[in-house]
Structure formats: structure tokens, C-alpha cells
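Ticket #4471: structure output looks truncated?

Reporter: J.K.
Steps to reproduce: submitted the chain below (242 residues) through the standard prediction queue, then opened the result file.
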Amino acid sequence: MVVIEKVDKHFGELHVLRDINTVVTRGEVVVVIGPSGSGKSTLCRAINRLETIDSGSITIDGVPLPEEGKGLATLRADVGMVFQSFNLFAHKTVLENVTLGPIKVRGMKKKAADEKAMALLDRVGVANQASKMPAQLSGGQQQRVAIARSLAMDPKLILMDEPTSALDPEMINEVLDVMIGLAAEGMTMIVVTHEMGFARKAADRVLFMDGGAVVEEAKPEDFFTNPQSDRAKDFLSKILEH
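Returned output as attached by the reporter:
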């Protein structure tokens, strides 16, 4: 589904992505972890060209990442993105937020889009909030709406960039439960997260990044019980002790 080859990216003097190579197969859940500033979010954003890359290539479902224009719009319609901050339209209801993409981009009729949106809101546990404005919802509810909005486009792939980091602790699990459900249903997902429990439970593979490079790549069980690199051992010792 996603092939990343020899990807490099600089922000001025800062080398934020260094020779990234990985393949994500259809239905696979890949969790990207690592310390702050390791390039995780930049990699996630580069996959749907919210960040450009300096060199290398990224292909999605066999198609190279388009530069601009219609091809890029088509790609973004097929690749869902869930951000740290929920990025919902404040002046539209929850239902309108979820139906906007299918109606505007996919040309869906309003009635069909409404029915689909309600089914998705029900699936993520917030159907009873459909007529409310985003500001009337808790952070956890807003993030679940953002996931429903992403799913409404029938994406081939969903990218999640630290989807729980802006949430209060008691709201994190309600979002993680939705993500675990998606993983179980076979959605192809690339998730940047600090939630090690999610990585252990739902990931098929963990990418550990540090200093802009993928330092280690392994199945969760192997990574968490027997990390190979000193950097990963150090990172896990700090994270898992608390």
C-alpha cells in the first residue's frame, strides 16, 4: 500500500528525515514511536504531502505521490488523516463535519451521506452528538468525530499523527478503543503515538525513530521484550518504568 524509498528531508540545517525505507502492506497497522523531534510526525505528514520531501520517493497503492493539483486532491481523498488537534469545522454540526467530504469530493447525495455518517458516528460511539457543534463535545468525542470524518471517505489508508496527545487521560482510552477496532477490521493504518499499550495490542509492526532515521523495525512483541539497538533500549527503559 505504501512504499517509502530513500526519503530525505531538511528544515534548513536540520536533517529531519534520513534515508527512510519501509513498506506498509494492505491491512497492516504500523506504529511509529520515538522521542520528540525524531521525525515521526514529519514522516507521517510527508506520506500525504502535507510536507514535501527533498529526495527519495513515496508511492501509495502503486501511484507516486503527485506534486500538486488534481492528482494530489485525489490522493488526499483516498488517504485519511487524523491530527493531534481535531481540526473540525467549528461552524458546522458534527453530522455536517462528517458528510462534507463525501458530498463535496465524492459527489454523494445528502441523504446517502447522512445515513453513512450516522452509521459511522454510531460506530465510534457519538451518534447521539450528531446535531451538536464541535465546541459542545469533549476532546475525546471530537477526536472520535474526526476519525468518523476520515472513515466517511472510504480511505485506502489512514494516517494518525499523535491522535491522543491533546486529550485528557480519561478520554484517551475511548479513542484508542476506536483505533483498536479499526485495526481489527483490517484498516491499513500508520499511527504516530506515545501510547505503548496501543502499539503492543494493535500494531503489526513498530518503527522506532531517532534523529530522523528508522533505528529499528520489529514486531511489537520483539521490540518491547528484546530491542536490538542501545537507543531503543534506553528509550524503552525511560518510558516503561513509569
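Triage note (M.O.): checked the attachment and the full C-alpha cell line is present. Residues 180 and 230 are 29 Å apart (CA to CA).
Status: closed, working as intended.
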